[in-house]
Design goal:
Immunoglobulin-like, 3 domains, 7-stranded mixed sheet, 15% helix, globular, binds fe (ii) ion
Length: 786
């Protein structure tokens, strides 16, 4: 193992712009699974997995100043620190060596990487540079470090072969084994491309893997066993060679890594496909808003008449309903890559059927399909029971999907763990009905259509047994010509949807209500924007932060009327959900204008109608606030950001307004819990009490709990406790600094305040111990299996 040792750097007055931390666990005898790469862009740090044992960093400096980056790598408690200067258009990278292997026979080791990006500061000197630091400081050109092996192996002298083996491909996620041999002088850049349909342009693979991720690649042979999904078309696998001199500057992935080029075909397989290539797939349920009903949607490769057969036993599926069939076309999409051949693939036919006359609280069995094209396997669900006096729901945002290969955009490996733990919880429920709520940024397909297919295959084990509800996020909709783009939101709405402009979202889901907005193009209207339903003792409301919600808008009128008409005897609790947060202490500055408008227009509706819980996504973290109204703790909904289900880009917290240059991001008074761990939340309610729990993916355990009583009282809301930091000031993201009411208490009630402060500090210590995150820092934890 390469030793990585040096003294800490000397750091003088610097302005910290961003920081990033990553923990990677390396099992005994293994090399790091994939340390990944870093990219600095618009003063924010991004992280992504890469199929390489190198840690690569691409640094992009500002055009107006010199930026500095301090990188430390803690490998088995030996710390390596390096400092980089970056200027305009300058790119640097480094490697910590391709062969770092955990030498211990049984124990795992942990690599911790910490990166701090700063600007306008003196150069930071590392007193004792190590080999890695020397590499970094040597300013070796990008192409040398990454591609040096090509210089050793420049030629190809014999014909390689590529073969494929698998059991019959009967269902998505069946695996295939791809073997290659005879690759002469293997190169780090040899790669494997996955093509469907087979006649796609060689540049338009759906995914790729570098052969060097096989343990035997250096021998010229190796294999991958990967799951594939049924994309209703044939597949073909090819392997290629290319060189660093063949990089195409404008063909880069989402993280700015060069996309592999199909310059030299080495070998290819025969075409192959799933046995029942048109069979029903991607089954998922949803409530219709009417009692006694359950919607089921699925995709097929044909548009023929299909049905849903259902009943109270697997042998009693004697009720039958037909499905409606729809599809969208490439011309419906608004922009590239969604309407370009790189991102477009035939989405198949989308079937939509509603099972009716369901008895409440009973387990129903069902299957979908047709006699001519075949049926799915049999699934089951428990029908909702609004008289049960109980509600169970699993809620999160920004989950995305995982793929067994690299593709043009970053995918979300952590979504696997999120699904795994929720599956555990649903299984434990037995015959109790439950609900899943995914509040925007759903698949992160962003115009690459097969990622939607991956997403629905990934959620099918859960979404086929509990209703799966969504609201729209920026990554489903955002595009430059979207109809509602007021001046104040000029920089809020951009190109995050990859040209989809809400079309796949509108077709692949069918949520209750009939909300819709015209796209302004030939594309059908966007639907599933805002709606509500009762589920047990909770009234759930879903909003669209991507379309007009201001006073006078259709959405505002819907929300006002809906909240004012809730029967709090039937549903003592009201939960409102949307994608972009109304409260956050992250530094998501781009979204500040929309946050301000939400506070101005929507918060009064939530407060006046005694909404209990307001859930938001978009920020990929968990953060719970006190019961709050206009930045004042004590009354109002409990706001919680729950965007931690899978997407791994994570913003930092905002600095204190009077300590902009302090590289510490303290927790403001109104933010009661901030977590950097991936996970999800669970809501359990009866007529008296709603319990909301944050569950972390690394251990599947509860990490934060808040309870809300039907009376409105919040337990663990800490509404009477004020954090005494910096003169008792509460940071207001609108740029104001409000005096916390504790100052009044200080003046008026000394002894009482003293007791409160003691209680607060005890609570703070307890919470920090629970978080395991000392000194108010955050540490994202990635589970090894993901
Ligand atoms: Fe988002």
């Amino acid at each position: 193992m390469r030793e990585v040792v040096s003294s800490p750097p000397v750091v003088r007055s610097q302005r910290v712009e961003s920081q990033w931390q990553q923990t990677v666990i390396v099992r005994a005898g293994r090399s790091p699974p994939d340390l990944g790469s870093l990219k600095l862009y618009r003063r924010l740090l991004h992280y992504t997995h890469q199929p390489t044992q190198h840690l690569l960093t691409n640094l992009y400096g500002s055009s107006t100043r010199t930026n500095r980056l301090c990188i430390s790598i803690n490998l088995a408690n030996r710390i390596s620190t390096s400092v980089e200067n970056t200027t305009e258009q300058q790119t640097k990278k480094f490697s910590i060596g391709p062969n770092i292997t955990n030498p211990f026979p049984f124990a795992s080791i942990v690599i911790k990487i910490n990166v701090i990006y700063s600007s306008s500061s003196p150069i930071i000197q590392s007193p004792n540079p190590n080999p890695i630091t020397q590499i970094m400081n040597s300013r070796i050109p990008l192409s040398f470090v990454f591609f040096f092996t090509l210089l050793i192996h420049p030629s190809i002298s014999k014909s390689p072969s590529l073969s494929l083996s698998s059991n019959p491909l009967t269902k998505s996620n069946n695996t295939v084994t791809i073997k290659w041999s005879g690759v002469d002088s293997p190169s780090q850049l040899d790669w494997l491309g996955i093509y469907t349909p087979p006649n796609s342009s060689l540049h338009h693979y759906i995914g790729y893997l570098y052969l060097n991720t096989s343990s035997t690649w250096e021998s010229g042979s190796g294999s991958f066993t990967i799951p594939l999904i049924n994309l209703r078309s044939k597949y073909k696998i090819r392997i290629f060679r290319w060189t660093d001199s063949e990089i195409v500057p404008n063909r880069r992935d989402h993280d700015n890594n060069p996309l592999p080029q199909p310059n030299h075909l080495l070998a290819e397989t025969e075409e192959f496909q799933f046995e029942k290539v048109h069979a029903p797939d991607q089954i998922h349920l949803a409530l219709t808003g009417e009692e006694g009903e359950m919607r089921v949607m699925f995709v097929s490769g044909h548009g023929k008449e299909s049905v849903v057969r259902y009943g109270l036993g697997p042998g009693r599926m004697d009720q039958v309903v037909k499905t409606l069939v729809g599809r969208y076309e490439r011309e419906d999409m608004c922009d590239s890559p969604a309407n370009h051949s790189v991102g477009w693939r035939d989405p198949g036919f989308i079937h939509d059927g509603v099972m009716i006359n369901l008895q409440p609280g009973r387990r129903y069995f069902y299957k979908v399909g047709s006699d001519s094209e075949g049926f799915s396997k049999t699934f089951s669900f428990v029908s909702p029971n609004n008289n049960s006096g109980e509600t169970i729901a699993f809620l999160y945002g920004d989950m995305g999907t995982a793929t067994p290969y690299n593709t043009y955009v970053r995918t979300q490996d952590e979504s696997i763990s999120t699904m795994k733990w929720i599956a555990r919880d649903i299984e434990a429920l037995g015959d109790k009905p439950a609900l899943i709520s995914h509040i925007g940024d759903i698949s992160y397909a962003r115009g690459y259509s097969w990622l939607w297919d991956h997403f629905f295959n990934q959620i099918e084990p859960l979404a086929s047994q509990v209703p799966y509800h969504v609201c729209i996020g920026n990554h489903e909709y955002d595009w430059p010509m979207q109809p509602w783009k007021p001046d104040w939101a000029m920089y809020v709405y951009a190109r995050d949807g990859g040209g989809e402009c809400g079309i796949p979202y509108s077709y692949k889901f069918n949520m209750p209500g009939n909300s819709s907005e015209s796209t302004g193009t030939r594309a059908p209207a966007t639907r599933n924007l805002y709606y509500s339903f009762n589920f047990g003792v909770v009234h759930f409301v879903y909003l669209s932060t991507e379309t007009n919600f201001l006073k006078g808008s259709k959405q505002y009128e819907f929300l006002k009327k809906d909240l004012e008409s809730v029967d709090r005897v039937k549903t003592p609790f009201v939960v409102v959900q949307g994608h972009r947060p109304m409260y956050t202490t992250s530094n998501e500055v781009r979204d500040r204008p929309i946050l301000e408008k939400m506070l101005e227009h929507l918060e009064p509706l939530l407060v006046n109608n005694k909404v209990n819980l307001a859930l938001w996504g978009h920020v990929h973290r968990y953060e719970r606030f006190c019961p709050i109204n206009n930045f004042t703790c004590g009354s109002g909904p409990v706001h919680v950001v729950i965007g931690m289900a899978g997407q791994d880009w994570q913003p930092i917290w905002e600095p204190r307004p009077n300590h902009l240059y302090d590289p510490i991001f303290p927790q403001p008074a109104h933010s009661l819990y901030r977590g950097g761990e991936f996970g999800y939340t669970k809501l359990i309610a009866n007529k008296e009490r709603l319990t909301f729990t944050y569950i972390g993916n690394h251990d599947g355990e509860a990490h934060d709990v808040v309870e809300i009583l039907a009376s409105g009282e919040v337990i663990n809301g800490e509404s009477t406790k004020i954090v005494p930091n910096e003169g008792m000031q509460i940071a207001d993201p609108r740029g104001k600094v409000g005096k916390a009411s504790v100052l009044w208490y200080v003046q008026g009630g000394g002894v009482l305040l003293f007791c409160l402060l003691i209680g607060y500090f005890l609570g703070l210590m307890s919470r920090k111990k629970k978080e395991g995150v000392p000194n108010k820092e955050w540490t994202p934890v990635k589970t090894e299996e993901a």
